[in-house]
Amino acid sequence: MKKRVHIFVSGKVQGVFYRDFTKRQAKRLNIYGWVRNLLDGRVEVVAEGEEEDLKKFIEELKKGPPAARVFDIKIDWQEPTFEFTDFEIIY
C-alpha cells in the first residue's frame, strides 16, 4: 500500500552528506519525494512509496551516513498525493 511520510531529522545531519545519503537510499528503495536542510539545523524529508519500503527508508535515515549523528526523528504518516516522479535534493 502506498503511503507518504513527512520527516524531520535532528542531530549532526548537516555538512555530513546526509541529504545525498537520503537520496541514494530513496533511489535504492523506489521512493519519490525530496530532502532539504532547514535553517535550524534539522533535515526535512517528504517521501512517498510502498509502506514497507518507507519503513526500510526510515530505518536507514535513523542511521545516516558515517559522519552523521541522528539524535531524533519525527515521522508523520500521511496519505500519498502521487505528486512526485523522482527524489531530489532541494537547495
Tell me briefly what this model is.
The chain is of the alpha+beta class. The protein has a single domain, classed as Alpha-Beta Plaits.
Key features?
91 residues, alpha+beta, Alpha-Beta Plaits, Acylphosphatase, acylphosphatase, Acylphosphatase-like_dom, EC 3.6.1.7, hydrolase
What does this structure look like?
Its EC number is 3.6.1.7. This is acylphosphatase. One of its GO terms (molecular function) is acylphosphatase activity. This protein is α+β, with helices and mostly antiparallel strands. It has one domain: Alpha-Beta Plaits, CATH 3.30.70.100. Helices cover 26% and strands 43% of the residues. The protein has two helices and five strands. The protein has helices spanning 18-28, 51-63; strands at 2-12, 32-37, 43-50, 69-78, 87-90. A five-stranded mixed beta sheet has the order 4-1-3-2-5, with helices on one face. The longest helix has 13 residues, at 51-63. The radius of gyration is 12 Å and the shape is globular. 29% of the residues are buried.
